[in-house]
Write a structure and sequence with these properties.
Layout (H helix, E strand, L loop, with lengths): L2 H18 L17 E4 L5 E4 L2 E3 L5 H12 L7 H8 L5 H21 L8 E3 L4 E3 L4 E3 H14 L3 H14 L11 H28 L2 H14 L4 H14 L2 H19 L5 H25 L14 H12 L5 E5 L6 H16 L3 E5 L9 H8 L9 H9 L4 E6 L6 H13 L3 E7 L8 E5 L24 H4 L3 H13 L7 H13 L4 H8 L7 H10 L1 H4 L8 H16 L2 H9 L9 H9 L10 H13 L4 E5 L2 E5 L2 H12 L4 H21 L6 H10 L1 H14 L7 H16 L2 H15 L5 H20 L3 H18 L2 H17 L3 H18 L2 H17 L3 H17 L3 H17 L3 H17 L3 H18 L3 H18 L5 H14 L2 H12 L6 H9 L8
Parallel strand pairs: 1-6, 7-10, 7-11, 8-9, 9-10
Antiparallel strand pairs: 1-2, 2-3, 4-5, 12-13
Helix pairs in contact: 1-6, 1-8, 2-4, 3-4, 5-6, 6-7, 7-8, 7-9, 8-9, 9-10, 9-11, 10-11, 12-13, 14-15, 18-20, 19-21, 20-23, 24-27, 25-28, 28-30, 28-31, 30-31, 31-32, 31-33, 32-33, 33-34, 33-35, 34-35, 35-36, 35-37, 36-37, 37-38, 37-39, 38-39, 39-40, 40-41, 41-42, 41-43, 42-44
């Protein structure tokens, strides 16, 4: 075998394996190669393979053609007359017979020389000559057999495998180098069958999304016949499907060139239509890529102007192997964040790698950095440590991590970044900060202000003043472009003309091209003309006094803008502006009213008219922004504005009141959320606490810092109300860190109230540790919690502490000890009639009973627990119990009952937005429906919905369960049906699930599992 042929054969074999191994199916039943005496290969030439010997040279060409004809017509007996007419048409009958005997004898000797008895391979009789099919295998025979099996297959996976095998065997024209008429006819027929099979295979691979493999097959087809149109069309089509329009254009151009140069022709109408679709498809592919990745980036606030060179430079840096850590350094308001967002957006478009944007503005302690990154990655629950989980997600593929507003981070935060860079060689990091990190791996890029009319050389004809400058030239100035864009946003009718051009240029110059300053100034065009804005800046020398202060140079220009905006506020507006700076991450009307008036309530009354006017005035002054979240107005300050306002607050007599009111409001909010935790509004309150997360942590921090003597239980009490929500929503890492700090700060306090709430916080640490399977930590904290509750005689606390300790024992397989803990918890709960504790104690006792096969006892516990959960309106517990009852019912053979419990479980979990629980319920439903056979398609659809939601939540795959589902689905559906239903399920909205389930299962349920 030649080296070239061997390489070609290895290549297509690798391609074949790529496809067949995706969904391995049993091989077709053929005579194994090890049992055949020889192999004849015809693709790319003629080769006789006996043992390890490859024979390519034959006595004569006619001898080779005789073997070729017999091998390509393997299952036939060939009369001698036909062979004579075919191979020796010019010879006489006698001469032809002699030539046939000589050629056949030469082939026999070849076999004998390699230890093969000729009669075991050739047969001759009165009717003709042939090869024994049991002793000989040919590559053409294998191809034809695979094509036949593909036609007979009802499974898409089987058909794909057989087609892949057939296509991979075709490495070149059969009997290449031979030119007899029958050979040319054979080549044409086999080639046509190859290309038909290739076309069908490519369509299957495209439908399944195996586009990379499909490209290799399309290229294989082009190599076989560069002037055949179908594989060229397929290659263009596949590149478009992959989202690579540039590659599609290149493939089309190559096909067009071949047609012109070799055939002096033009592409067909179909190809021309595909070419016209390339640009449209390219745009759609680009938009699709951005839409898929934009969730990892904040929305871009308008068009970025004047930064193209910086963006391209940063992209080039980040694409190199040596510059993997880039820090954008600049003063507040200089545009670092906006520039980073644009770099991230274009990074996605150019590389198609993910970009993760993490706002670390409120993270000062480096110990919390990984938790914030994990939150941004969307990981809500995990078993591994936070370091391992961050490394797993970020290290799975090349990606860009953007850490925004890093300047307040301590040294441990810098070390965390360094460690990530060392662990994850495919990771790029882009940081925005007012200070560089000082790491050896760091490349610092200073972000400069936008060019201004004079400094940027935008004057025309060397004129000394802007009035004489060309309007067209000035419009090219980045700072002018930004000012105009913002002005036209707040005042759509605003126009750029010769009358206001000089003033606008003067404003840009006065504000030194600082983006935030320009935006704030431009927002004034709603109430002032550009001339008035410039005049106001010039009339207030105190606004310019910051230029001579000790502030950094570029910070002075931002401060000028902020001081100016502050000076324009009326005295009655300045106080609320200062006080609202206590909010981190935004606020709503109720929170603003609490801080500004001291009145804590979630109701909106007539007095709120003044509050609304105040907020409206601050919005008008571009100091506050309003956003709509879940149908409710929410307000926020840009962080640079908030910090500026906070400086004024700290210097005023309002600071103490603002901080205290802020804490009281969020303490009240946490307590109210705890009261609603077992009701139907649990989902809304969970969302509320998620929005207020930064404010809640800020309030906790203030309370701890204020309480220097550690005699006030306020912070502990607030945290005790929050940790259950952190557990429900998967905020385990940051929750444990916050709770640990509180435990450490108040551990030694002798105050009775402090000790009481300390015990509840310790329970929270234990519960969150249990969720993360840190059982040693869980046991330690829960034991300390129980001891404090026992010392105080707090039976409610004892009931819950024993319940959680029972969970620790259960997970450690100490089942008898766990039962004792649950029973003690239940006894205490019944004594004080604590419905929630009674609910969970009985549920876990039911779990123990079910595990030990005591199904009657388990059912009794579950039903009793469910009754309590319904009495206490504990929707979260009801979801668990219906799931457990479903499992139990199926163990008892009560499949209709089990299905109804599962339906209720799914409905409850959807209502309270317990999405991990929804995934769990869908997993079980998909298995049970698949087992019915009749509803297997719905089972596959629900599997698709579950898979999509699991990926979104970064939940681990239940491998054993998935294997069971896949096996059952294959027993009832073919691969094409399974694939179609799963894809449909991935597109199914969650609110469609329950109606879909009810419509299909109404009046019937699975009969068996």
């Amino acid at each position: 075998m030649s080296q070239t042929h061997e390489q070609s054969f290895n290549c297509v074999t690798r391609i074949f394996l790529n496809v067949s191994l995706v969904h391995a199916q049993p091989e077709e039943e053929m005579t194994p190669l090890s049992e055949t005496l020889c192999r004849v290969e015809v693709f790319g030439g003629l080769r006789l393979i006996v043992g390890e010997q490859v024979i390519t040279r034959f006595r004569t060409e006619k001898t080779a053609l005789l073997l070729a004809y017999l091998a390509t017509h393997l299952h036939q007996s060939h009369p001698r007359e036909i062979l004579l007419d075919l191979l020796w048409p010019e010879s006489t009958a006698e001469s032809g017979r002699t030539s046939l005997r000589v050629s056949l004898s030469a082939l026999r000797r070849m076999l004998e020389e390699h230890g093969v008895v000729p009669e075991s391979v050739f047969y001759t009789d009165n009717f003709g000559i042939g090869l024994r099919a049991s002793a000989v295998v040919t590559d053409l025979q294998m191809m034809e057999s695979s094509l036949r099996l593909a036609r007979q297959s009802t499974s898409v996976a089987d058909r794909r495998q057989h087609l892949a095998r057939a296509v991979s065997l075709y490495t070149d024209l059969p009997l290449k180098g031979y030119y007899e008429d029958w050979v040319l006819q054979l080549q044409e027929q086999v080639s046509e069958r190859y290309f038909l099979a290739l076309d069908e295979l490519l369509k299957i691979l495209e439908a399944e999304g195996q586009l990379d493999v499909a490209i290799e097959y399309a290229l294989h087809g082009i190599a076989q016949d560069p002037l055949r149109e179908e594989p060229h069309l397929a290659l263009v089509r596949i590149h478009l499907a992959r989202g690579y329009p540039a590659e599609a254009r290149k493939a089309y151009a190559e096909w067009e060139r071949l047609l012109q140069e070799d055939l002096d022709s033009t592409p067909s109408r179909e190809t021309l239509m595909l070419a016209r679709a390339i640009d449209s498809a390219a745009q759609q592919a680009h938009q699709t890529t951005e839409a898929m990745c934009r969730s990892a980036l904040p929305p871009a606030p308008g068009r970025l102007v004047g930064r193209d060179r910086e963006v391209e430079r940063l992209l080039q840096l980040l694409k190199t192997e040596t510059e993997r850590l880039v820090t954008l350094v600049g003063e507040g308001g200089i545009g670092k964040t906006r520039l980073a967002i644009e770099v991230g957006r274009r990074f996605i478009a150019q590389t198609r790698h993910p970009v993760w944007f993490v706002d670390v503005t409120d993270v000062r302690d480096g110990a919390l950095l990984l938790g914030r990154i994990l939150q941004a990655l969307g990981v809500t629950s995990h078993v591994a440590t936070v370091e391992e989980e961050v490394a797993r997600v970020l290290g799975s593929a090349p990606s860009l991590l953007v850490l925004d507003n890093f300047e307040q981070m301590d040294a441990s935060g810098k070390q965390t970044v360094k460690s990530l860079m060392e662990q994850l060689p495919m990771l790029r990091v882009l940081i925005t900060s007012r200070l560089h990190l000082g790491l050896s791996e760091e490349r610092t890029v200073r972000v400069q202000p936008l060019e201004t009319p004079f400094a940027g050389g935008w004057k025309a004809n060397g004129a000394p003043h802007t009035e004489q400058a060309s309007l067209e030239s000035l419009l090219q100035c980045p700072s002018v472009q930004l000012f105009l864009a913002q002005a036209q946003q707040v005042r759509p009718g605003f126009e750029w003309n010769a009358q206001n051009a000089a003033s606008i240029a003067g404003i840009c110059e006065r504000l030194e091209g600082v983006p935030l300053a320009l935006i704030l100034a431009a927002s004034r065009v709603r109430v002032l003309s550009p001339q008035q804005i410039l005049h106001s800046l010039q009339k207030h020398p105190d606004l310019l006094s910051a230029q001579q202060s000790c502030l950094p140079e570029r910070h002075r220009s931002l401060r000028v803008s902020l001081e100016w905006s502050y000076a324009l506020l009326s005295p009655e507006m300045r106080r609320p502006f200062r006080m609202l700076s206590v909010f981190e991450g935004g606020w709503d009307l109720a929170a603003a009213r609490s801080v500004l008036t001291g009145f804590i309530s979630t109701e909106i009354g007539r007095a709120d008219a003044v509050l609304l006017d105040t907020l409206d005035a601050l919005i008008e002054n571009s100091l506050v922004q309003m956003e709509e979240t879940d149908g409710e107005a929410r307000y926020r300050m840009l962080e640079t504005v908030r910090v500026f306002a906070e400086e004024y607050l700290e210097a005023s007599e309002d600071a103490a009141d603002a901080r205290a009111r802020h804490f009281l409001f969020y303490s009240h909010l946490a307590e109210e959320a705890d009261r609603q935790r077992t009701g139907p509004l649990v989902a809304q309150w969970a969302s509320c606490l998620g929005r207020e997360h930064r404010n809640l942590l800020s309030a906790l921090e203030y309370s701890v810092q204020r309480d220097s003597a550690k005699t006030d239980a306020g912070a502990l009490r607030m945290a005790a109300f929050l940790w259950v929500y952190w557990m429900m929503r998967g905020a385990l890492v940051e929750g444990r860190q916050v709770l640990h700090r509180l435990l450490d700060a108040y551990c030694a306090s002798g105050e009775e109230e402090v000790s009481r709430w300390w015990a509840w916080v310790a329970m929270g640490v234990g519960a969150l540790a249990w969720m993360q399977r840190d059982l040693d930590e869980a046991e330690r904290c829960l034991t300390e919690s129980l001891q404090r509750f026992e010392k105080r005689g707090d039976k409610a606390g004892q009931a819950f502490a024993r319940l959680w300790l029972g969970n620790v024992l259960y997970r450690r397989q100490g089942y008898s000890q766990a039962r004792a803990a649950y029973q003690e918890s239940l006894a205490l709960a019944e004594e004080i009639q604590d419905v929630e504790a009674m609910t969970y104690a009985q549920m876990w006792l039911g779990n123990l009973a079910q595990r030990e096969g005591e199904t009657d006892k388990a059912k009794s516990f579950y039903l009793s627990s469910l009754a309590l959960a319904e009495k206490g309106a504990d929707w979260y517990a009801r979801g668990f119990l219906h799931y457990n009852l479903a499992q139990l019912a199926h163990c008892r053979g009560e499949h209709q009952v089990g299905m109804e419990h599962l339906r209720q479980c799914l409905q409850l979990r959807l209502q309270i937005r317990d999405y991990p629980g929804v995934v769990e319920a869908l997993d079980e439903l998909s298995l049970w429906l698949a087992n019915t056979g009749q509803h297997a398609q719905l089972g596959a659809q629900l599997k698709g919905t579950s898979d999509a939601l699991r990926e979104q939540l970064h939940l681990p795959v239940r491998t054993e369960h998935q294997q069971r589902v896949d096996a059952v689905l294959r027993a009832h559906l073919n691969e094409y049906e399974i694939h179609s239903c799963i894809q449909q399920g991935r597109q199914t909205a969650l609110d469609e699930l329950v109606p879909l389930l009810e419509s299909v299962l109404e009046g019937e349920a699975p009969s068996s599992l």
